[in-house]
């Protein structure tokens, strides 16, 4: 298929978050520290799940894959942001901009599927404990992960094919620190009003539908536990609070940006710092420091490091 791009724009200028030198310095250290924490924290989760046999369960298998997606999502934007702040060069080539858009939506779509899978896992564990291992079999868990990547790719391609062939022949300044559909499409030399609604119907509808479905599912689980335990919700709430926190942090920026025709303010780029830098760092903290099984696993790891022979008690 012969698809030619009539663009004369070969690169975009990312405006970033601030023109202040002091703020540049602050943001450089902020993103650098957070990105290092994201990589180390999420790789630590993956390492723990792989090496500790007690964590070879459906929940932690899905969590390890969520950590990998968090690393991928952050890596599409944060390193470029750090580089721009360090060199004070905010240029991104057209191909790199398109690649960044594509992988943002691959990772984002995949993460939504995994969050749904994790909600289903918690529903099964709490509401159908006797059938948990049968329902959440290794085959089912692998299917969830494969589905996450397939859905992420389909989600990205279904929007990307419209944007890649838009003609860009005028302004090339993107009012953000990363490339994404809303900001880049505004720079096209054609009317993109109809295409905006395609993006809203895709990313916006999916974000809202997934968010409300997850919240309703968690409420259903809490109500079920409340009925079975004569009003004692403490154990279920502790179990689900981490998941609910992550869902709110992940979906709030997405709904803000994609749930209605495209923004006229710069507020969305600040919101997406949550998705690209804060949430991927909070995930390891939420799922380790607040998780009993993970804390026990870390203590076992500490004992193995201190006493590799296992002689001491």
From TrEMBL:
It holds the Pfam family 7tm_4. It is a multi-pass membrane protein. InterPro entries: GPCR_Rhodpsn, GPCR_Rhodpsn_7TM, Olfact_rcpt, Olfactory_Receptors. Keywords: Cell membrane, Disulfide bond, G-protein coupled receptor, Membrane, Olfaction, Receptor, Sensory transduction, Transducer, Transmembrane, Transmembrane helix. The keyword Disulfide bond applies. Residues 41-287 form the G-protein coupled receptors family 1 profile domain. GO terms for molecular function: G protein-coupled receptor activity; olfactory receptor activity. Putative odorant or sperm cell receptor. PANTHER family: OLFACTORY RECEPTOR. This is Olfactory receptor.
């Amino acid at each position: 298929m012969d698809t030619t791009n009539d663009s004369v724009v070969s690169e975009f200028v990312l405006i970033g978050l601030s023109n202040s030198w002091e703020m540049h310095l602050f943001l450089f250290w902020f993103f650098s520290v957070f990105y290092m924490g994201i990589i180390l924290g999420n790789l630590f989760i993956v390492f723990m799940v792989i090496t500790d046999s007690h964590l070879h369960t459906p929940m932690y298998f899905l969590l390890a894959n969520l950590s990998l997606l968090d690393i991928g999502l952050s890596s599409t934007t944060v390193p470029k942001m750090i580089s721009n702040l360090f060199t004070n060069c905010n240029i991104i080539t057209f191909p790199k901009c398109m690649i960044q858009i594509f992988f943002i939506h691959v990772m984002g779509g995949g993460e939504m599927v995994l969050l749904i899978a994790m909600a289903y896992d918690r529903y099964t564990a709490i509401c159908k404990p006797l059938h948990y291992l049968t329902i959440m079999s290794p085959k089912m868990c692998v299917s969830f992960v494969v589905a996450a990547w397939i859905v992420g790719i389909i989600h990205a391609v279904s929007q990307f094919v419209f944007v890649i062939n838009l003609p860009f022949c005028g302004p090339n300044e993107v009012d953000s620190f990363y490339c994404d559909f809303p900001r880049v499409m505004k720079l096209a030399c054609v009317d993109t009003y109809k295409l905006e609604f395609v993006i809203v119907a895709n990313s916006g509808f999916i974000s809202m539908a997934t968010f409300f479905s997850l919240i309703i599912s968690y409420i259903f689980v809490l109500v079920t536990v409340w009925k079975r335990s004569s009003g004692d919700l403490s154990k279920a709430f502790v179990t689900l609070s981490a998941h609910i926190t992550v869902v709110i942090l992940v979906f709030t920026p997405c709904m803000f940006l994609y749930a209605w025709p495209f923004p006229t303010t710069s507020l969305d780029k600040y919101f997406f710092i949550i998705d690209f830098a804060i949430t991927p760092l909070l995930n390891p903290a939420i799922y380790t420091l607040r998780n009993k099984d993970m804390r026990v696993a870390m203590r076992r790891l500490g004992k193995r490091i201190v006493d590799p022979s296992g002689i001491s008690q």
